[in-house]
Amino acid sequence: MPPASMNKISPPSADKVPPPSANKASPSPVSPASAKKLHTTTYIPLEGFHNLITYQYSGEDKSLIFKHVLTPMNKVLVEFFPTWLAPNTITVSGLLSVMISHMVMWYYTPSLEGHAPTWVYIFNGFMLWVYQTLDNLDGRQARRVGASSPLGLFFDHGCDALNCTIGSLTLMGATQMGSTWKSLTLLMTTIFAFYLNTWEEYYTGTLILPVVNGPTEGLLLGIGFHLWTAYAGPDWWLRSLFIPMPRQTTQAVSDWLMESFGFNLWFAEEVSSTGTIAVAHNGILAMVCAFLCVVTLINHTTNVYKAVTTSGPKGHGKYTETWLVRKFPFTHACTRLIPFFAFTTLAVAWILMSPTDILTRYPRLMFWTIGLLFAKLVTHLMIAHLCAVEYHPFRRTLVPIFFFPLHTTLTWLLQQGEVELNEDVVVVEFFLIAMAAYVHLVFGCIQEFKAVLGIHCFYISKQKQVK
Fold first, then answer.
1. How many CB atoms lie within 10 A of CB 306?
2. Which residues lie across from 280 on neighbouring strands?
3. 212 Cβ contact list (under 8 Å, min separation 6)
């Protein structure tokens, strides 16, 4: 995603989830005992059933563009939707729009570099606009037909999480980032900002989007990047800016990274004899994304610290009172991030230490695997938020997922870089496990949301098909 879209959590708006009095669906919700029989593995804890039914969204979008441009436009566009069209159908349609453009870019730039026809970049920008528009219209349609529910927020948030990977990969191909540190930086900054934003929402109970935020200005920037690529050509991103820097320092760091990891992490494309370094435009984009991500993470961490240290050990009632919560509430909150940080660290370590340069040979497969695991972890966090229960990030399904990168990294370290391991097979297995775990999670959660709330997913009853 583009720089300003690092904080990409689309606000479902107050109309996406109604107040408790309006949050009644037909047919009636099932009992906890009945819902428990739905699956052998229950993602929604029994103690969260009541909280899920009475959940009320809290948040605000302070963007001036959203308020004065997008909101009036969306008020007109939503009237073109028939009243029988379910809000979740609109949400999924938005995701499909960016998925189609992603597949087109995959066809023309399988290795995240190369040229595509001009119309492809225009198409990418248009589809991203469609995604942004439908992402805003689903909530309005829900209020219009009286079909608001936490399931709508679950769909909205889940599609946004997937779009972190989809949008990033599409932008990587358009900006010629290839299998380099630039692509890795772009993806990592996007998922880190998204995950910690959800972490903040869990502990503060609300989602406040600033005047400049990802869902509005960030996506508009992304649209602009694609349209600019169509105008200036993809090679524009490979052109360099020349910056005077101490030659010995930059060359020494670059040589050390290449010798140690065999991976060029340094942002300089080349170092001249005069002490000038050349930085490509797409490298500048990646560095700006990294800087904005750091600023965003500091802001999220500060807000969580204030929330857990001023609201008492039990916070919003989402976690039990233990010794760690009583004495060190912020430390307890940070421990909820351990699996996410461990998984991303191991993934990056595998990429850097891969004896067969796995990222260069399978860039999209590696990034999709990371993206699916991120989506799984953030979905569990979102469920805990919706159900107002304690978030348990240490899950059994993560064990085999952590094993692959850990095994590869330890083998590389113990054998001093000599690894007799078929990484081609490992990366495919890694991806299949991540895909299976995520699909099982999404399917199971949808069924359980429907059962607990007593609603349909893609269907609106006849009684509600009125304005």
1. 13
2. 240
3. 4, 63
Pairing relation of β-strands 207-209 and 270-271? unpaired
Q: Minimum mean pLDDT among 14-23, 28-37, 68-77, 131-140: which range?
A: 14-23
Question: Does the annotation count 68 as an active-site position?
Answer: no
277 has which bridge partners? 243, 271
Q: Residue 388 region, left (φ>0) first, then alpha (ψ -120 to 50), else beta?
A: left
Active-site annotation holder among 102, 157, 380, 385: 157
What is the arithmetic mean of pLDDT over 103-115?
94
The first and second tokens of residue 147, run together, are 């079909």
Nearest Cα neighbor of 430 from 300, 343, 302, 337 is 343
Structure tokens, 110: 């399988």
| Residue 270 confidence (pLDDT) | 56
- CA separation for the pair 322, 313 (Å, rounded): 9
Cβ neighbors of 295 (< 8 A, separation 6 or more) are none
At residue 418, the pLDDT reads 59
Residue 208 DSSP SS3: strand
Asked if 354 and 423 touch (Cβ cutoff 8 Å), the reply is yes
Pairing of strands 59-61, 240-244: unpaired
Cβ proximity of 19 and 232 under 8 Å: no
> What one-letter code names the amino acid at 211?
V
For residues 49 and 451, the answer to whether their CB atoms sit within 8 Å is no
Whether the Cβ atoms of residue 193 and residue 6 lie closer than 8 Å to each other? yes
To the nearest 10°, report the CA torsion of 214, 219, 225, 228.
Answer: -140
Please report, rounded to a whole number, the percentage of residues in the chain having pLDDT higher than 90: 39
Mean pLDDT across the stretch 279-288?
89
- Indicate the length of the chain as a whole number: 467
